[in-house]
Amino acid sequence: MTYSVTTAGAPAAQQFDLWESAVSQTFVPLEAAPGERSAFRGRLRGQNLGSVAVYEATADAHTVRRTQRAIAKGNPEVYKLGLQLHGSARLSQDGRQAALDPGDFAIYDTTRPYTLAFDDVSSTLVLMFPRDMLCLPSGHVEQLTATRFSGGSGVSGIVSSILVQLARNLDDPQVYGSVRLARNVVDLLGTALADRVDYSNVPAESSRGALLVKIKSYVETHLNDPALSPTEIAAAHHISTRYLHKLFSDAGVTVSGWIRQRRLERCGQDLADPSKQQLAIGAIGARWGLVDASYLSRAFKTEYGLSPSEYRQRSATHRSD
Predict the structure, then answer these.
(1) Cα–Cα distance for residue pair 224/241, rounded to 1 Å
(2) What local confidence, expressed as pLDDT, does residue 175 receive?
(3) 233 or 173, which is more confident?
(4) Which residues form the HTH araC/xylS-type domain (predicted)?
(5) Which residues of 14-44 are buried (b: 16+ CB within 10 A; e: fewer)?
(6) Is residue 320 packed enough to be buried (19+ CB in 10 Å), middle (13-18) or exposed (0-12)?
(7) Mean pLDDT of 309-321
(8) Among 42, 192, 224, 298, who pairs with 156 as Cys (CB 3.0-4.6 Å)?
(9) What gap in Å lies between CA 237 and CA 218, rounded to an integer?
(10) d(Cα 213, Cα 228) in Å, to the nearest integer?
(11) Taking the CA atoms of the chain, what radius of gyration do you get in angstroms?
(12) Are 120 and 146 a contacting pair, CB within 8 Å?
């Protein structure tokens, strides 16, 4: 069930206090300061998808700070991702500042101080998840806090588009697979971050994990190539195919199985996307490297229990309810 809280209806003098309490209880303890308006409009809605909290926050101008005092009140050791849906934001942490416009996102670590400033009415999608869910060492992530990731292209563009769709369907997360989708979004975020990590100082003990994340990032950006193969992937990363298979095997998956899963998930997202309702199912499959329509139908039904057309119809039905 979607959780929702709004300042509407509360006395003007109490509206901002209500907002500060809501965001502190929903996420982590925070200190906040309002803008210049005497009244404050704010709405927070969302839900927990397994270990991942997914919320949309829409509010007037204000600033929130994760201070050392707030950290002392509660420190659950989680990462947060903020994606701007409307308006702009400025995120500061670890000596960096990221200016975020619609479609952009950034990651921040709740175990250290940070500041988020919204100069006008804005809407932000926030993901919060345990730090150990991200498949990158914390030292690598620390290089990238308060760094702007553009929603325009590459893996970060894929992450952004999925999050925008998720925001549009917060009241019906089952359309996108609920807990499984949340896990996949965090995995995708890991690949986007991996592209920006400086690997020159990667410790030897974490090099295998870092390489796997980098390989997954490569795969993610080449899903549309039907000829994508373990041989090509290994060659692109200057390793043997045997070592490539071992990397994935140690992670509990096969190379081909992981590629197939990601392609089917991308097809599922397109099938559930109302802006792509005019695309033929075969065209959606070909868009993600599955050019054989009969194979797509069989594999999709095995994975989701529904044919692609049934999945699309169910998604449309959920949106109209």
Answers:
(1) 21
(2) 46
(3) 233
(4) 213-314
(5) ebbebbbebbbebbbbbebebbeeeebebbb
(6) exposed
(7) 77
(8) 192
(9) 9
(10) 17
(11) 21
(12) no
Between helices 255-271 and 207-220, what is the axis angle to 10°? 40
Percent of the chain whose predicted confidence (pLDDT) is above 90: 55
Q: What per-residue confidence (pLDDT) applies to 11?
A: 93
**Tell me: domain 222-320, CATH 3.40.50.1100, correct?**
no
Which residues are CB-contacts of 83 (< 8 A; sequence separation ≥ 6)? 103, 104, 105, 124, 125, 126, 127, 151, 160, 163, 164, 167
Q: What is the architecture of the domain spanning 3-197?
A: Sandwich (2.60)
Q: Which residue reads 């990731």 in tokens?
A: 149
Query: CB within 8 A of 272, min separation 6: which ones?
Result: 165, 169, 175, 176, 311, 312, 315
Predicted pLDDT at 1: 57
Is a pLDDT exceeding 50 seen at residue 177?
no
Question: Which long-range contacts (C-beta less than 8 Å, at least 24 apart) are formed by 239-242?
Answer: 239/211
Angle between helices 241-250 and 255-271 in degrees, nearest 10: 70
Which of 171-185, 264-278, 290-304 shows the lowest mean pLDDT across its residues? Answer: 171-185
Nearest to 199 by CA among 207, 189, 188: 207
Which pLDDT band holds residue 70 (cuts at 50, 70, 90)?
A: very high
- The mean per-residue pLDDT over the stretch 136-152 comes to 86
Residue type for 281, please?
I
**Tokens 């050791």, residue located:** 77
Phi, psi of 210 (to 5 degrees): -65, -40
Tokens matching residue 123? 């809407």
pLDDT class of 200 with cuts at 50, 70, 90 = low
What are the extents of the domains in the chain?
3-197, 222-320
